[in-house]
Amino acid sequence: MSSDSAAPSAAAHKATHPFLFLVLFIPFGAVPGFLTVALAYELKKKGIDTGDIAILVGLSYICLLFRWVWAPLVDTLLTRKIWYVGSTLLCGLGLWLAGRAATGQHPSLVLINAALAMSTFMSTLLAMAVESLMAATIPDDKRGSAGGWSQAGNLGGQGLGGGLALWLVESCGLNESQSGAVLGLVCALCCLALRWVDDTRPLLKVEGHVEAAGHLGVAANLKAIGSDLWELLRSRIGILALMICLLPIGSGAAQNLWSPIAGEWHASADVVAFVTGAMSGVISAFGCLAGGWICDRIDRKVAYSLFGFGLAVVAVGMALCPRTSSQYVFWTSAYAFVVGLCYAAYCAVVLEAIGQTAAATKFSFMSAVSNTPIMVMTFVDGAANTRWGTNGMLWTDAWCGVIGIVVFALVAGATRRRATAAPSGLSPVH
């Protein structure tokens, strides 16, 4: 933010330990984890084609793409804790419904998609609440760490949601419905972490000064939020953050298809459940923490580009490796670690750019944009797998990442020259 009047509002918040954001983000990660690991594996066993599974996964991102449309609700109504609790409970209900639709020998992809759409929609609301709390309570020099912890919760939640759910079905005799219900209960328990998080009404920037939301009408609220978002998108840091979210750098889309291709590496159900589930979550979490630590010490955008290149290298390595179960374990684990680095850097870049005002809307807009390459690359990887096989899929995933890095470097160079020529028109938003 550029207004000095924001300082008192920041001081009004009690310091929040970044670890709490790991817990609060677990439900957000559990939804795609349940789909891409547990349901994807079970659907493949029941004869559903990999291409159809890829479409199901890709469609689940639609709510994430448009989450900025309803983000002003979180920026202007109620408190962030109320939004979190209500949306988390409904998110867990959707997981149970999705598991119920997948139970039996003839699962309905339409009903699964509908239930997951509900869970994904609710997960966007709980994520907005957490992101707004992060923007309000974390100082600038700790935003890398906060990004690391929060994305550790996101990716750890994906591992937990996938690995735990698949293990419950394959090893404990539960069906998909019961597995989804257990996962919903885990999500509900995450609400307990709110006890140690400070909360007030969100902040808005109104005519150059900052005030708590709730004192303006709907039209004035929307005008203030829209003006703040436009100011961000006109700044150099906003442009670069937008490009990082839009380009297919570090998207990690290939991991959405690890379960359906596991048979090529002769990986058993237990190996898939452990490696792409619990183990992947732990490894990704360590990647997030390492990425957050690095991002507080070097330029966060440079770090993101370096991590994205590393992900491309891992994809190529997996394409060239022998088809054995141990190689599957190694390369999917390496991919998970680098995805953790990328996700931490993404979150740190966005937190650096958005400031404290209208935080839910600005973060949601960036997050919606960032899900575009994940959704698109899931479709692209699925199509590449159908046309050229698994190796073609991995090479496609790698080359798209490298091309994205080149485009970002060109944009960064162009905006740097423009900022030098007209600094007043592109001053960063802090």
From TrEMBL:
One of its GO terms (molecular function) is transmembrane transporter activity. The keyword Membrane applies. GO terms for cellular component: membrane. InterPro entries: AmpG_permease/AT-1 (IPR004752), MFS (IPR011701), MFS_trans_sf (IPR036259). It is a multi-pass membrane protein. Keywords: Membrane, Transmembrane, Transmembrane helix, Transport. The chain crosses the membrane at residues 20-41, 53-70, 82-98, 110-130, 237-259, 271-295, 302-322, 328-351, 363-380, 392-414. It is found in: Membrane. PANTHER family: MAJOR FACILITATOR SUPERFAMILY DOMAIN-CONTAINING PROTEIN 3, SOLUTE CARRIER FAMILY 33 ACETYL-COA TRANSPORTER -RELATED. This is MFS transporter.
